[in-house]
Design a protein that fits this description.
Layout lengths: L1 H10 L1 H9 L3 H12 L1 H14 L1
Helix pairs in contact: 1-2, 1-4, 2-3, 2-4, 3-4
């Protein structure tokens, strides 16, 4: 299942984070990072997915 989340994190970073932790601090932080730059959003999403 982590492979699917990582693929979604590359395409749409907030979706990958949402599937991992739901709506919370990391989800909103990832939306902010994705709006500031696509690459920071991807890095944060992959970090959140691999951390658990």
């Amino acid at each position: 299942m982590d492979v699917i989340r990582i693929l979604l994190a590359i395409i749409l970073p907030p979706v990958g984070v949402f599937l991992q932790v739901g709506i919370g601090l990391h989800f909103w932080l990832n939306i902010l990072l994705t709006l500031c730059g696509y690459i920071p959003g991807i890095i944060h999403a992959i970090w959140v997915i691999l951390r658990k």
